[in-house]
């Protein structure tokens, strides 16, 4: 410490002397120290050249030239004054001081370099953080741009979906409108064809009526001529046979004629007051008109058979064979209808005779037990034939009215003042005589009446495409209304009603729906419930009540399925 303090004092004094010398020698030549490359070393840590630490210079050997060619020409004429030679202690102290100053300067430089390195690192960190911040900002902007693109894409997709839905809806509406227009055109075309078909049918019917009229006129002329010439035994035999047949039919109708004649003065009041004949005024008038036509055709046919020598037995056998051999299949019905139409329209046999042969054979099927499938087939056969030959339907319904009064509908109550015996009453309501001359049993009559009513129900419910039913479901609905309005509930009427509804119930429900169901409720409440107890316990009434309560009319009868089949377009009727 002492040396260090002395060194500091010496240094201060020397500095003062040097300062004074500088002040006194202002304007004189400055001190110039030259160093060679050997006096420097390269410091790798500091990346620069530094003065070699252990070497010092002394001014003792300093040479000052007064030569005018000296490098410093600006100090000409100035006297150079040097420091006196220092002692050994002073030099040592000076060196220590210089070493310490150099060490301090090294520390300062090292600290400065550390600070510079720290600053550089901080700058690098700041630059790195700034770059990361910019990258994050760029990524954020990229995310926002991606989000914007996705949002715009979703908006575009939603708009495209909406436009597609609008376009699809517009196309559907256009298709619906086109289909509606097409359907309207198809309906118009179908109506036009139907009108044309009706016109053709009407034209054919008029032509047939005209031909029948001409035929009848010709037959009348032939009959008048034949009456004058008919004298042979063969003619007498035929006349006798026909007369016997006519008398048999008149005998079967005698009781009904007696009844009608006895009520001729008060028929209107009878069916209105309900004393004897139970029916409606409309039904009675329609029946009378049909029976008049039927009787007239029968009379004309008898006259034709009497006036000609032709044998129609073979023709009748052909008609009967086609009806008897018909099976309960659609193809069989179609084939038989075609064959029968061919027979009915034969020019060699008067059409009225063929019609009555066909009608008698159809109704004759009710005289024996017949299943429902066969009755459905007979009903369709009758509709197909009648659609081409309209008089067939009128004669068939008239024949049914004649053999079964409940197809009118009509019921005759028993009255001792009108009927002297029960046999007369039974004949009036339709009982037939057996071979031994006795009246048929009640069971036989109910079975035959049931078949007649089922055949009538099968006829009215028949619907065949491209063929018109001249006595269709509307007639069945009218029959049902007249039946319930006029006929009383008893053993005969209840069985007749059940037989009809069993066959036509499904078709009536399809056509009239809720109205038909209300009618069935009325039947169960106001018809079946008021029957006598002995009738309620019968099998037929049990079946009838079960039919209503289980609503069997909602399902198509299995036997009726052939009615839903479409007739082959290859079938062409004459």
Topology of helices and strands:
Elements: H1 2-24, E1 40-43, E2 48-51, H2 88-229, H3 233-262, H4 267-273, E3 277-278, H5 281-307, H6 313-324, H7 330-344, H8 351-364, H9 372-388, H10 391-403, E4 411-412, H11 422-429, H12 442-460, H13 473-486, H14 491-512, H15 514-528, H16 533-536, H17 539-549
Antiparallel strand pairs: 1-2, 3-4
Helix pairs in contact: 1-2, 2-5, 3-5, 3-11, 5-10, 6-7, 6-8, 7-9, 8-10, 9-10, 9-12, 12-14, 13-14, 14-15, 14-17
Identify low-pLDDT runs: 1-12, 24-32, 53-81, 251-274, 563-574
Helix content: 55-70%
* Strand adjacency order, main sheet: 1-2
Average predicted local confidence, pLDDT: 79
Distance from N terminus to C terminus (CA atoms, Å) equals 157 Å
Number of continuous helical runs: 17
| Coarse morphology | elongated
What does the main sheet amount to? 2 strands, antiparallel
User: What does the radius of gyration come to?
Assistant: 68 Å
Strand content: under 5%
Number of strands: 4
* Assembly annotation: single chain
Pattern of helices and strands: HEEHHHEHHHHHHEHHHHHHH
By secondary-structure content and strand pairing, the structural class works out as mainly alpha
């Amino acid at each position: 410490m002492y040396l260090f303090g002395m060194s500091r004092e010496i240094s201060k004094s020397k500095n003062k002397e040097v300062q004074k010398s500088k002040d006194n020698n202002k304007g004189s030549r400055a001190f110039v120290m030259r160093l060679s490359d050997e006096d420097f070393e390269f410091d790798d840590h500091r990346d620069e050249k530094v003065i070699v630490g252990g070497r010092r210079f002394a001014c003792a050997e300093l040479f000052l030239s007064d030569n005018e060619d000296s490098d410093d020409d600006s100090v000409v004429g100035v006297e150079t004054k040097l420091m006196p030679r220092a002692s050994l202690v002073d030099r040592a102290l000076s060196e220590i001081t210089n070493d310490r100053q150099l060490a301090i300067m090294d520390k300062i430089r090292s600290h400065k370099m550390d600070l510079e390195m720290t600053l550089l690192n901080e700058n690098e960190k700041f630059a790195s953080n700034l770059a990361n911040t910019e990258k994050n900002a760029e990524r954020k902007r990229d995310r926002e741009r991606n989000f914007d693109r996705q949002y715009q894409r979703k908006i575009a997709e939603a708009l495209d979906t909406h436009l597609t839905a609008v376009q699809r809806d517009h196309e559907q509406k256009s298709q619906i409108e086109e289909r509606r227009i097409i359907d309207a055109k198809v309906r118009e075309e179908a109506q036009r064809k139907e009108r044309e078909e009706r016109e053709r049918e009407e034209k054919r019917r008029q032509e047939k009526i005209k031909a029948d009229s001409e035929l009848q006129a010709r037959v009348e002329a032939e009959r008048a001529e034949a009456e004058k010439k008919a004298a042979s035994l063969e003619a007498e035999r035929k006349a006798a046979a026909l007369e016997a047949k006519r008398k048999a039919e008149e005998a079967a109708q005698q009781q009904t004629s007696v009844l009608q004649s006895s009520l001729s003065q008060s028929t209107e009041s009878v069916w209105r007051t309900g004393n004897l004949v139970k029916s409606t005024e409309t039904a009675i008038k329609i029946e009378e008109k049909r029976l008049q036509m039927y009787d007239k055709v029968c009379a004309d046919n008898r006259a034709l058979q009497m006036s000609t020598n032709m044998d129609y037995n073979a023709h009748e056998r052909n008609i009967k064979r086609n009806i008897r051999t018909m099976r309960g299949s659609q193809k069989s019905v179609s084939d038989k209808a075609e064959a029968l139409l061919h027979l009915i329209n034969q020019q060699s046999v008067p059409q009225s005779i063929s019609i009555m042969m066909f009608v008698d054979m159809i109704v004759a099927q009710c005289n024996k037990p017949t299943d429902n499938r066969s009755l459905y087939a007979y009903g369709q056969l009758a509709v197909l034939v009648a659609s081409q030959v309209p008089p067939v339907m009128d004669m068939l319904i008239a024949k049914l009215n004649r053999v079964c009064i409940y197809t009118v509908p009509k019921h005759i109550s028993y009255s001792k003042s009108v009927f002297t015996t029960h046999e007369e009453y039974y004949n009036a309501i339709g009982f037939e005589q057996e071979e031994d001359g006795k009246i048929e049993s009640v069971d036989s009559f109910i079975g035959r009446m049931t078949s007649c009513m089922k055949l009538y129900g099968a006829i009215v419910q028949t619907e065949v495409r491209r063929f018109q039913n001249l006595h269709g479901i509307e007639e069945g609905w009218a029959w049902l209304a007249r039946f319930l309005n006029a006929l009383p509930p008893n053993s005969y009427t209840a069985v007749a009603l059940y037989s009809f509804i069993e066959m036509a119930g499904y078709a009536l429900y399809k056509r009239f729906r809720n109205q038909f169901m209300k009618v069935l409720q009325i039947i169960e409440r106001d018809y079946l419930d008021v029957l006598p107890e002995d009738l309620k316990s019968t099998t037929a009434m049990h079946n009838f009540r079960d039919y209503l309560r289980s609503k069997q009319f909602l399902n198509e009868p299995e036997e009726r399925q052939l009615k839903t089949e479409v007739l082959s377009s290859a079938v062409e009727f004459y």
